[in-house]
């Protein structure tokens, strides 16, 4: 479970940081206020770029913590520029790197309880990772990438996937 989660999370958070840096540079080059890019959405009823990044980070720090059987750290959602969002990504990666690989033993069968919108949801570890955490993480990564791309940031597929695996 560790190998299917933490290294994947970190690699894709690295890629997310890379696309955000390109977004930041695009704002500088085109003299667009960062706040304009960070508040951009794909549709009126979707979250803006800044929130997509926050949720992506929250999804993997929560997923990693729950699978490892440790407390989920709470980060305030108060980032207002690219530098702060990049710092949040780094903080999330640091947390994930601190998780003990051994604590994931048996997590495929561990019960995970979440409260979402006031409702309690029960999962078993492996379906929690494969059918909840990863799809949600990929969704918010994709939304962030698409918002930047839609706003004219020069991105390619390799930016999203973080290059080829070693």
From TrEMBL:
It comes from the Bacteria. Pfam families: DUF1993. Gene3D superfamilies: dinb family like domain. This is DUF1993 domain-containing protein.
């Amino acid at each position: 479970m560790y190998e299917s989660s933490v290294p994947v999370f970190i690699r894709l958070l690295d890629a997310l940081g890379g696309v955000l840096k390109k977004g930041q540079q695009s704002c500088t080059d085109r003299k667009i206020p960062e706040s304009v890019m960070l508040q951009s959405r794909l549709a009126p009823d979707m979250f803006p770029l800044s929130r997509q990044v926050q949720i992506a980070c929250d999804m993997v720090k929560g997923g990693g913590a729950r699978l490892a059987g440790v407390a989920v750290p709470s980060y305030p959602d108060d980032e207002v520029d690219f530098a702060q969002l990049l710092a949040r990504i780094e903080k999330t990666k640091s947390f994930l790197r601190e998780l003990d690989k051994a604590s994931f033993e048996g997590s495929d069968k561990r019960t995970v309880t979440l409260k979402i919108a006031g409702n309690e949801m029960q999962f078993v570890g492996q379906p929690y990772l494969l059918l909840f955490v990863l799809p949600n993480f990929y969704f918010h990564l994709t939304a962030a990438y698409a918002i930047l791309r839609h706003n004219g940031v020069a991105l390619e597929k390799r930016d999203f996937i973080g290059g080829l695996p070693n």
